[in-house]
């Protein structure tokens, strides 16, 4: 692929992937506001308690084969069909396990309702398995525009129905319906848009070839998924569904900001970095651009959210969710590191080092479990949250060190590229924070003034110090403007 063509596809991919992610995010965000005012913290807490079982099963079904298909330069039709049937088999088996294990899970949490909820919610495993290959084929082809339209349409339809159910007193079942309908609509549209259909073939050769790479990614993803969701298991067992609800809403709002932006970059960067895996200097250049651009958005955003956390949560969820503020602010500190983990992880995966990723995933997640469980045992919820912060930065540092070793993007280079962004973000935060202390004109007006000061200071310092990431966004904006004008018919 020519460099100019790759650059054009990268910009287009980022644009449509961002449109997909933030469009669906905006719809989900508005729906969550409505549902949070209609439903109780207990309803959200119960769903949060079950998240670890659903996400672990979903990760196991994909099995790393989706990543293997993207990493492989020219997958065959036999590859796609083989993995499709494997995914379907696993989804049915895992749903069966969840179905028969649901009474024990309900007894573990001492909430009988969870048995029925898990049995219904678990159907998403089978529905999602139908669409994994269709989704990965479009991703590999960088068809992010089609994916964006599918995701946003599915989100609108599912959320509209779930809000209607909540308004009619269905409680927690409105949240379950939202998940089932979202994956059902998405699967239906992917099969309508995607022209691929599975052949009646299961190739042992294809399976073994993809398994050699995908197995390590599977284990790494399973460990990551378990450790990312262990907090819900611990909080649900040690505390109650209300505490879990407050935590899950704080976590959801933090992820909306940190992982939503990074996932846009990750999903575009992975196939592009895999394409350039044989040209290390070019790959390093693209990786540094991805990382600095991502940091330029996420670091200031996380600090800004910490600053205005209380008025933000009261505004969007109502005062009954005030206990979420403290959780949210601490999680935002972790969110800075979390946003930079994925791009480093996928850079190593792009060069085929799945075995090394697995080894270090076991190490870093083992360290993380010690911090999280130890923090909870010693200091309660604050200790657990502090453990999550320490873990997030440990994981980022290990991922960046792996990039240093296997890709060649040196650790100190990455730090030096990130340092100016971190400095001006902290400057904007401190100035906005102390300005808020000096004025006392109400919670919402003060937050608005702090937000304006933060943005103005951040952009001004970016211009003064001529940050490369800022220049990159200016260039992207110009390219998109030229592309739009080029498509507009001349008068």
Write up what this structure looks like.
Helix content is 87%, strand content 0%. The protein contains 18 helices and no strands. It has helices at 3-38, 41-62, 65-71, 77-109, 113-121, 124-129, 132-140, 144-167, 172-193, 204-238, 241-275, 280-307, 309-317, 324-350, 354-406, 411-438, 443-464, 468-487. Helix 2 packs antiparallel against helix 10 (204-238), helix 10 (204-238) crosses helix 15 and helix 14 (324-350) packs across helix 15. It is globular and about 70 Å long. The mean pLDDT is 85.
Could you give the topology of this structure?
Layout: H1 3-38, H2 41-62, H3 65-71, H4 77-109, H5 113-121, H6 124-129, H7 132-140, H8 144-167, H9 172-193, H10 204-238, H11 241-275, H12 280-307, H13 309-317, H14 324-350, H15 354-406, H16 411-438, H17 443-464, H18 468-487
Helix pairs in contact: 1-8, 1-11, 2-4, 2-5, 2-10, 2-11, 3-7, 3-10, 4-5, 4-10, 8-9, 10-15, 11-12, 11-14, 12-14, 12-16, 12-18, 14-15, 16-17
Mean pLDDT: 85
Largest sheet: none
Query: Structural class per helix/strand content?
Result: mainly alpha
Q: Are there runs of 5+ residues with pLDDT below 50, and where?
A: none
Quote the beta fraction: under 5%
Output the number of helix runs. 18
Q: Order of SSEs, N→C?
A: HHHHHHHHHHHHHHHHHH
- Distance from N terminus to C terminus (CA atoms, Å) equals 35 Å
* Cα gyration radius (Å): 23 Å
Helical residue percent?
Answer: over 70%
**What's the shape?**
globular
Q: How many beta strands in the DSSP annotation? A: 0
């Amino acid at each position: 692929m020519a460099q100019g063509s790759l650059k054009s596809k990268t910009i287009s991919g980022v644009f449509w992937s961002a449109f997909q992610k933030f469009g669906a995010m905006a719809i989900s965000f508005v729906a969550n506001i409505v549902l949070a005012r209609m439903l109780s913290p207990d309803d959200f807490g119960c769903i949060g308690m079950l998240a670890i079982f659903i996400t672990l099963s979903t990760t196991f079904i994909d099995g790393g084969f989706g990543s293997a298909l993207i990493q492989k330069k020219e997958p065959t039709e036999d590859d796609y069909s083989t993995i499709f049937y494997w995914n379907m088999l696993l989804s049915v088996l895992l749903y069966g396990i969840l179905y028969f294990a649901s009474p024990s899970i309900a007894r573990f949490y001492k909430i009988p309702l969870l048995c029925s909820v898990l049995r219904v919610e678990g159907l998403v495993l089978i529905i999602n398995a139908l669409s994994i290959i269709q989704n990965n084929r479009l991703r590999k082809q960088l068809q992010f525009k089609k994916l964006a339209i599918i995701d946003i349409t599915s989100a609108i339809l599912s959320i509209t129905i779930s809000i209607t159910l909540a308004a009619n007193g269905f409680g927690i079942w409105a949240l379950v319906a939202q998940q089932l309908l979202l994956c059902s609509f998405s699967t239906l549209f992917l099969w309508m848009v995607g022209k691929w259909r599975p052949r009646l073939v299961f190739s042992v050769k294809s399976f073994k070839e993809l398994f050699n790479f995908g197995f390590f990614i599977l284990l790494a993803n399973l460990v990551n998924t378990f450790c990312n969701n262990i907090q819900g298991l611990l909080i649900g067992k040690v505390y109650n569904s209300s505490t879990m609800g407050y935590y899950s809403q704080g976590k959801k709002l933090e992820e909306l900001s940190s992982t939503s932006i990074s996932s846009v970059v990750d999903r575009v960067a992975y196939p592009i970095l895999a394409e350039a895996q044989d040209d290390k200097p070019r790959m390093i250049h693209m990786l540094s651009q991805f990382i600095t651009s991502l940091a330029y958005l996420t670091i200031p955003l996380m600090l800004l959210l910490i600053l205005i956390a209380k008025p933000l949560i009261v505004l969007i969820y109502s005062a009954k969710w005030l206990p979420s503020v403290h959780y949210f602010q601490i999680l935002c500190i972790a969110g800075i590191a979390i946003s930079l983990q994925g791009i480093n992880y996928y850079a190593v995966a792009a060069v085929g080092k799945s075995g090394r990723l697995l080894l270090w995933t076991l190490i870093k997640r083992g360290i993380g479990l010690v911090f999280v469980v130890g923090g909870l045992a010693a200091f309660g919820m604050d200790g657990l949250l502090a453990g999550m912060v320490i873990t997030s930065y440990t994981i980022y540092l290990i991922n960046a060190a792996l990039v240093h070793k296997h890709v060649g993007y040196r650790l100190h280079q990455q730090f030096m590229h990130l340092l100016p962004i971190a400095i001006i973000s902290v400057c904007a935060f401190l100035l906005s924070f102390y300005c808020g202390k000096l004025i006392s004109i109400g919670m919402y007006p003060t937050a608005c003034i702090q937000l304006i000061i933060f943005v103005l200071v951040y952009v001004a310092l970016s211009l003064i110090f001529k940050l490369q990431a800022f220049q990159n966004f200016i260039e992207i904006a110009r390219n998109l403007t030229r592309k739009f004008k080029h498509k507009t018919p001349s008068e």
